[in-house]
Amino acid sequence: MEFVQSGKYSEVHYDRSRKVFIKTFQPKLADRLRYALRIRPYPGRNFVIVAERLKALGIRVPEVLAFERYRLEMRDVEAPELRGLILDDASLQERYVELITKLYRDRIHCRGLHTKNFLVKDGELVAIDLDAYKAPRLIHYSGREFLTCLKRSLGGPEAFLYQRIVERLGVTDAP
């Protein structure tokens, strides 16, 4: 098993023989309490909930092979990151704008909507890192917070995408 990366509260490993990514979560104590009290779903379960919601919107996601509270196995999508392709491809830019617009309108919140969290497989976008998404249950995040997070995610040469998304949504007082 190969170590791929560690995040704030997770680690990702890759099982090359099975072509499977394995993500384990080590949340803070406060988050563990939220999970135990059912204020939030456990990270593995949240991934599955969000994956189903995104699939219903027509957004491709990795295939989940197994999940537990703090562990998740996903089939490797074997595709390049959107970040390396988007600046030179108008059709990928349009697909990204459409996808983000769908998320906004369906009130699905994510703090990591940068182009590194999307892959391009057969010309279609695949959303990854779904444990960072929050589908509305009791708490609905505001559209303004969504756009604030999105603006932070799209800096540098990709900043023009934020403007396109805001225009598509018809938001006149965007952050």
List its traits.
175 residues, alpha+beta, 5 helices
Describe the structure.
This protein is α+β, with helices and mostly antiparallel strands and 175 residues long. It has helices spanning 29-36, 43-56, 90-105, 143-153, 159-169, and strands spanning 2-6, 10-15, 20-25, 64-68, 71-75, 109-110, 118-121, 124-127, 133-134. It is 34% helix and 22% strand. The relative contact order is 0.13.
Give the topology, please:
Blueprint: E1 2-6, E2 10-15, E3 20-25, H1 29-36, H2 43-56, E4 64-68, E5 71-75, H3 90-105, E6 109-110, E7 118-121, E8 124-127, E9 133-134, H4 143-153, H5 159-169
Antiparallel strand pairs: 1-2, 2-3, 3-5, 4-5, 6-9, 7-8
Point out poorly predicted stretches.
none
Number of helices: 5
Overall pLDDT level = 92
- Count of extended strands: 9
Question: Could you say which structural class the secondary elements and strand pairing correspond to?
Answer: alpha+beta
Distance from first to last alpha carbon: 43 Å
Please give the radius of gyration in angstroms.
16 Å
The strand order across the widest sheet is 1-2-3-5-4
How large a portion of the residues is in β-strands, by DSSP E? 15-25%
The assembly state of the depicted protein chains is single chain
Shape: globular
Proportion of helical residues: 25-40%
Give a short account of the largest sheet: 5 strands, antiparallel
